[in-house]
Amino acid sequence: MRHSVSTVQPGDGAAARALRTVTRPARVNETGRDASSGAGADADRRDHALRDPAVDGARTRAAAAAGPLARRRARSPWRAVLATMRPRQWLKNALVIAAPGAAGALGHHGVPLRVGLATVGFCALASGIYAINDVRDVAEDRLHPVKRFRPIAAGELGQRPAVLLGVALMLGGLALCAAIRPLLAVVGVGYLALTLTYTMIWRHLLLFDVAAVAGGFVLRAVAGGVAAPVELSEWFLLVVSFAAVLVASGKRWAELRRTTLAGASRRRVLERYTAGRLRALLWGSGAGALVTYCVWAFELPDAKGFPWRPLTILPFAACLARYGSALRTGEAEAPEDLILADRWLAVAAVLWLALFALEVHAAA
């Protein structure tokens, strides 16, 4: 006699909750009765254990400690290189385009080309930094439930090739920035200096880690203004600064929440953050972003008598509210994934972009 049981293999990684049906001969005791006659009750107990949050959490932590062996299918070398460059993160470099767009300069001769090339250059700089940082953080990433699947942590891309990739991307990005404008290359060097020292210094210091992440966003906006070139509004830079602090604080909040619920180890600087301290940062930066945006929106006169830019306050506030909702559920550790996956956040962002484009068109 054969019967089916459900088993979970410890190396299944992200699929640890999935059940795989296998068959094995039934055991027969001395009386000739099937020793598995109570299999139905046993299966119920196993199913209950699989649904138990405590058991599930323990299994998740065990899978996280399993490291790259938990991956069932390895990437090809080229896909590993592309994954190390993190194309999803390039969404952050939209700030390079947003800065001259906010100044209404994208319609000027030559500006779209220069700004577009500057965006490509900063994508290369950012990808180079990701490669270098992944080499440095490989041991820590292997203990993270998501980061352990990064190519270097998973053993799909060697550390030496990753370093060469990172250096090549950073040199290429700087060369492209210098070809656009020498001053843009200076901004690129500042961006590299800030983000590279972030891993070595700033990420280990309370509040400075948040300020360093926010500084990277501000430098992207400055790069767009330099590439155009246009003079950036002080209020626009304040909006970017407060919004960047909000995003950086949200990442820390989500990380603190995840490690607390899972009982997992956390980075040293995260031990110094408290829920109250992070909540104050989130409320302060969110309120600062909304207030400065309102001032910036009313800074310019209405285009052809219609208040297009003040109308953008509504979808901007909706984006902040939706992001706050995601923070409460711990979904903001990867903001770029949240923006791409959250439907209502995407709707509010598209509405903001449409109103802003109408304002720029009317002003032109």
Commentary on this structure:
With 364 residues, the chain is mainly alpha-helical. Helices cover 66% and strands 3% of the residues. The protein has helices spanning 39-51, 53-66, 77-85, 94-102, 111-136, 138-141, 159-180, 182-200, 208-227, 234-262, 268-272, 275-297, 308-311, 313-328, 335-341, 343-363; strands at 2-7, 20-25. It has a two-stranded antiparallel sheet. Helix 5 packs antiparallel against helix 7 (159-180), helix 5 packs antiparallel against helix 9 and helix 10 runs antiparallel to helix 12 (275-297). The longest helix has 29 residues, at 234-262. The radius of gyration is 25 Å and the shape is globular. Residues 1-72 have low confidence and may be disordered.
Physical arrangement of strands within the biggest beta sheet: 1-2
Task: Give the CA-CA distance, first to last residue.
Answer: 81 Å
Counted beta strands:
2
Helix percent band = 55-70%
Main sheet: strands, sense, barrel: 2 strands, antiparallel
- The residue-averaged pLDDT reads 80
Give the uncertain stretches in residue-range form: 1-72
- String of helices and strands: EEHHHHHHHHHHHHHHHH
Task: Kindly estimate the percentage of residues that lie in beta strands according to DSSP.
Answer: under 5%
Oligomeric grouping of the chains: single chain
Contiguous helical run count = 16
Q: What gross morphology would you assign?
A: globular
Q: Find the structural class using helix and strand composition.
A: mainly alpha
Q: What is the CA-atom radius of gyration, in angstroms?
A: 25 Å
